[in-house]
Structure formats: C-alpha cells, structure tokens
Amino acid sequence: MLHSKLITLVPLLPFAVFLLTGLFGRKYLKNFSGILGTLGLFVTFIISIYTAYEYFFVQGRDANGIFQQIIAFKYTWLEFSPGLSIDMGIILDPISIMMIVVVTFISLMVHIYSMGYMKGEERYATYFSFLSLFTFSMLGLVLACNIFQIYIFWELVGLSSFLLIGYYYDKPSAVAAAKKAFIVTRFADLGFLIGILILAFYSHTLDFQTLIERFTNHSEFYTAVTAASFMGVSALTWGLVLVFIGGAGKSAMFPLHVWLPDAMEGPTPVSALIHAATMVVAGVFLVARLFPVFSLSCPPALDVVTYVGIFSSLFAAIIACTQTDIKRVLAYSTMSQIGFMMFALGVSGYGAEHGLGYMASMFHLFTHAMFKALLFLGAGAVIHFIHSNEMKDMGGLKKAMPITHITFLIACLAIAGIPPFAGFFSKEEILAAAFENNKFVFVLALITAGITAFYMFRLYFNIFWSKKANDNHSNASHGEGSKTMLVPLCILALCAIFVGFIPFGHFVSSDGKILSTEFHLLFSIGPVLIAVLGIALATVLYKKENPKADRISKTMGLFYNAAYKKFYIDEIYLFVTQKIVFNLIGRPAAWIDKNIVDASINLSATLTEKLAETIRPVQSGKLQQYAVYFFGGMLGFALLFIYFWKN
Amino acid sequence: MIEIGIAQLLVVSTALFFIGVYGFLTRRNMVTMLMSIELILNAVNINFIAFNKYLFPHKLDGLFFTIIIITIAAAEAAVAIAIIINLYRKYKSIDVEDANSMRF
Q1: Cβ contacts (< 8 Å) between A621 and chain B: which residues?
Q2: What distance in Å separates the CA atoms of residue A46 and residue A273, rounded to the nearest whole number?
Q3: Dist CA A21 CA A24 (whole Å)
Q4: Distance from CA of A631 to the nearest CA of B (A)
Q5: Minimal CA–CA distance to A160: which of A141, A147, A143?
Q6: Is the Cβ pair A622, B100 closer than 8 Å?
C-alpha cells in the first residue's frame, strides 16, 4: 500500500506554509518567507515524485497490469443521506498523480523564479503566501475524490487567482482585471454547480468512482437520467454540458475566455503558474476526470467539448497574431493550446486504441505546462529587463540576454511542434487522434498548428531580433537577472526538450491499460511542414525590421482590425451587460427595490414617527401639567368608583 | 345659631382641599406650591378627625393617622425644601416652569 499518510502531506504542506507566511510573514518572516515557501514546496515536490514512482512502477497496477484508482485517504465531512455525502479525500490514479507532479514542479520553478523577480516588493511575504494558497488549492483540486470537493477547491483556486491578479492593487487595471476574472469564472461556476446538482440528483452520489460507475453501467440510475429530458435533451447531457461550462470558464474557452488576457495584469510568475500551466487546465482535468461518463454515456456532450475546443483554439490563434503586448500573445496562445487539449478529449473514445485522444490530451497538458511556463518566465525576464510589455519597446535582445534567448527559442520550437522538442510529440498524437475520428477538426487543428508556429516566432523575432541591439536599453547594465531567475529557465528548457520522450501512454490512458503509440513518420511530415512554413513566414516578416508585415496587415484591413480588437468580444459583453441586462433587468429591479421593498419599510418608520410626534407633548417636563393628569386621573377613578359602588 | 356638625366640617375640608389643588396647579412659585400641598394634607387631617369624632367616638385611629400625617408632612417639607434649594442652585430661579429639562 502507498504511504497514505505521506500523500496527505502533499496538499497540507503548502497549506501550512500559507498559514505561516500569511500570518507571520509581513511582520516576522519578511524575506525569509520566500525561502520558506520554496523549501516547503521542494519537500512537497519530492513527496510527489516519490508517490509517482511508487504508483507507476511499484504498486499502481493490479494483477492484469491495469492502473487502479486508489483512495489514499477519505474523510466523510457532511453526510446528507446514506451514500450522498461530501467527502474530503485523496484519489490516486494516473491523471491525478501526473497533475500533482506537474503542479508541484511548475510551482517550485515559479517559487524559485519569484525570489528573484519579486525581490524588493513591499508585499513580498503576502505574495508567497498567496502562491502557497494557490498550490494547496490546486493540489486539493486534482486529488479530489468527490465532485463537491473538486468544486470547493475549484472556488479556492479561483480565489487565489483573483488575489494574485489583483496583487498590484494600486493599479486600476489590475483591480478591474481581478474583478473580471472573478466574475466571469463565477458565472461559469454557476453552471458547474447546477451540473453537479443534476448529476448528484440522478446518481444519488457525489463520489467520483460511484458516479462514474453508475452512469456508465446500464444501471437504474442510468436509465433514469437518460429518460428525464428537458427541451428535448436528456438530463445527463444537460448535466455534463453544464459541468463543462464550469470547466470552460476556468479554462478560458470561447466565449468565457475574456478574463484570461486581462489576467496578465498580475505578476508574470503568477501568469506562468496559474494562467498558463496549472489552473487554466483545471477545466481539461475536470472533463478528463469525468471522461468515462462523457465518452461512454453521452457522446453529444463530448461533441460540445470538441467543437468549443477547436473553435477556441483557432479563434485564439488568430487573435494572438495581432496582439502587441507579449503577455497577451502568450495568453491567447495558452487559450489556443487548451483548445487543443479540449478537442483532443472530444475526439477520443474510451478504452484501448480509441483512447488515443485522451492520452494525447493529458500528454499535451503535461508538455504544455513545461514550455508555456518557460515562455512566461522568459517573457517575465524580458519584462524585468525592459520594464515594458510592448513589443515595440523590444528588439535585438539576443545579445543582452543570451540565456533567456536560448530558452525562449527552445520553448517556441516546442510549442510550434518541431521535433524533437516536447510539443511535437503531444501535438502529433492529438492530430493523429483527430485524424482518425474527425477529419474536419483535423484540418482546422492543422491550420491552427501552423498559425501557432507563426505567432510564436513573430513574438520571438520581435523580442530578440528585429531591430538592432538598441542603445536605449540604459538599464542593460543590471544584467539578465539574478541566478534564481535563470536557473528555473534552464531547468524548464531541459524539460521542454526531453519530456516528449516519456512513453506517456504507458502511464496515462483512458482505461488504465498500457497504450503504446506508434510513431508514423509519414503522418508527422504534414504537421511539421506546416509548422516550418509558419516559422519561415515569421522569419521573412519579422526577422529584420521591415514594412512587409504592416503592408500585409493593411491589405487584410477589416479582418486585421477585428482580430486586433479581439473580435469585439469584450465590447459585445459590455453591450449585453450594460445596455441590455442593466436596462431591462437591473434598472427595473432597482426601481422595485427602491420604491416597493424599501418604501414599505420607510412607510412603517414614517408612521411611527408621526405617531410619536402627536403623543410627544404629553411628556412636556412641566410639573404642573403632570399634576393635572394625576388629579384628573384620580378624579376619574373616584367617579368610576362611586358609579359602580352605588349599584 | 347653627350646630356645627359633620357637614360643616366636611365643607371646610373640601374647600381647603380644592383651594390646595388650585394653588398647586396654578402657582409657579415652588414654595407656594409646597404650601398648597400642606393645605391639601390639612384638608385630609380635618376629614380624619371629623369622621373619627362622629362615626367612631370611642376609637382614636383617626387621631393617630392625623399625627402621623403631620409628622410626615414635616419631613416631606424638609425634603421638598432641599429639592427646591438644589433646583434654585441649578436654574437660579424657583419658578417651576424653568425646571423643565426632564422631557422628550
């Protein structure tokens, strides 16, 4: 048996660090809190690696060589009725183990990097306590054994994301971005909650294992949930689609993606950790967690996942070509890559060979975490150096920042899908899965892959080549950055090169069996060719400063402008909320609140006041007036007494 | 010559009582009001004596009550004077209208 006590430390250690740095950080620990956070996370990372080793190589498989789901720890927290309870527990299966390794690893890198990047910040300790809170919540999320537990931690990661986006709380744009992220994901989480309630209502359980078992085997629960329908769609589809809406909100899928680009207002290491590598893939993880239900019982819901994924992917890739803020380019690229993971799940089947998409999606999640964190940290180093997010302020940095340049290039090659870098293998398998199941999606994905290569190298050339090494980098004297910033870059770069060689199918597959993937040389020629084409185009346009790019954007005209303005999605949201929702619902509701609800309360207050006004003179403070009342009263009593006594 | 009986005594005491009440309600001078209270008390005393004499000639209860009331009245006058002096110190006046801070 695995060390179940040890594994509970994985989420609890970051939590302890959060409490320590949160409570005592600002006063007592100060700069030590960075080291404390990093140390705590380092231990967590070691435990995760150890757990992964134990699980994958020693105890995870049963007699048939299938990976088992192991409940390492379970505490029934709130029991509604027998079987229906909210538990706090830890589930160990390939995807959760893979996720804890990714989360602790990226988080460790970001912690180390932040010690250099955030040096001298006033709220240094607060920053690290928030990071620990996030790590705790994310680990709790991926280890959740109960759908309600995942929801609780889901909200917690949302909270820590909100806190970290709004870290520079004296900057109005950061505050607005934090609020936007919170409200948009909150809105999506409403769907998630309703989805949970629908699923729990029909399955009579909140436990993942039981729920999946009841909905995939043809049990009475399955019959009930497919029989019930609303607007011609079965309750199961509704439930899963609503759950997916929650996932889409967190993973920035169209049309709930609007918060992600704005979330780049947070410190760059935070963008690397939360808005690139870990939190935003929570939606993918959620779909993967419920994958047997999606795949075996409800193909229509899986189609929704596919098309939302591929559309978001293409949509974001087009926008990314036009943006000038380097972090925004990376944000849209994240959205695009998550779209890849989503539709990979969507085109996947369950079990054996059909589960290729599932495996590819998890693989891409894994590799993407590495190279996207690297891209963000590299961008952070550039921003640290230039003190600007805008492309036009950059250029010719390859001499000034050699290490950043090399690592960034590696990450760009990885995301573009050039062999032998990590992104190639995972993207390859996603495309293979799409090719087998859905040709239409495959074609779109191929185009998107080309665009991805193009915009990544546009970014790369604009930062490191383009202009001549500028003299105006007066701050060049302070060097590339401290060692704490460069070491994570190098480690991540190594990962971005080598993680692709992990035989991922041996560890993660839809049904726990080993899925060995073959490498088709012929098939991979197409995607690689397209990626090279994208890179070549970017080289022509951006390697040297020239007017070709501007000329092309002019000829594109309207389309370019629309993409530059992010296809006006933000404006549509503003129009819908301010013009339609506020005017048609908000204002009437406010009127009713003011004139009917409040007014009835005010009325009773006014009545009381009027009454008091009339009887107030009784207490005049005049002694003789009181005496008159007294004598009058006595007289009255006397008369009454005489009157009744007479009879 | 009219025999003085209970009726005459009661007329006197009633007159005295209402004179007292009238004085208490109309005078603004607190000392005068105190005097009016004494009038009311004396009206009660006359009542006690009169009823004692004509209804229960062999008992002395009414007499005792009268003596108690006179005693109490003396004590009460002392307390009242003390109050009036204190009010005078605060308001520089013994007009009852001026001491009207105890109100809404």
Answers
A1: 100-104
A2: 19
A3: 5
A4: 8
A5: A141
A6: yes
Residue range A151-169: mean pLDDT, rounded: 90
CA B3 to chain centre: 27
The model's pTM: 0.78
Lookup result for tokens 């403070």: A621
B24 part of contact set with chain A, CB < 8 Å: yes
Tell me the Ramachandran region of residue A204: left when phi exceeds 0, alpha when psi lies from -120 to 50, beta otherwise: left
Query: Shortest CB distance from B103 goes to which of A620, A624, A627?
Result: A620
Taking contacts as CB-CB distances below 8 angstroms, the residues of chain B near A627 are 24-25
Q: CB of A401 within 8 A of CB of A382?
A: yes
Q: Which residue of B has its CA nearest to A613?
A: B104
Q: Which helix (H) or strand (E) holds A70?
A: strand A70-81
Other beta carbons less than 10 A from residue B34's beta carbon: 18
Please list, in sequence order, all residues whose beta carbon lies within 8 angstroms of the beta carbon of residue A252, skipping any fewer than 6 positions away: A259, A260, A280, A312, A334, A335, A338
> Is residue A624 less than 8 Å (CB to CB) from chain B?
yes
Tokens 């048939």 found at = A64
Judged against a pLDDT cut of 60, whether residue A134 lies above it is answered with yes
Q: How many CB atoms lie within 10 A of CB A27?
A: 8
Query: CA A431, CA A4: separation in Å to the nearest integer?
Result: 38
Tens of pLDDT, residues B6-41 = 888 999 999 999 999 999 999 989 999 999 999 999
Close Cβ partners of A644 (under 8 Å, ≥ 6 residues apart): none
- Structural domains in chain B plus CATH codes: 6-97 (1.10.287.3510)
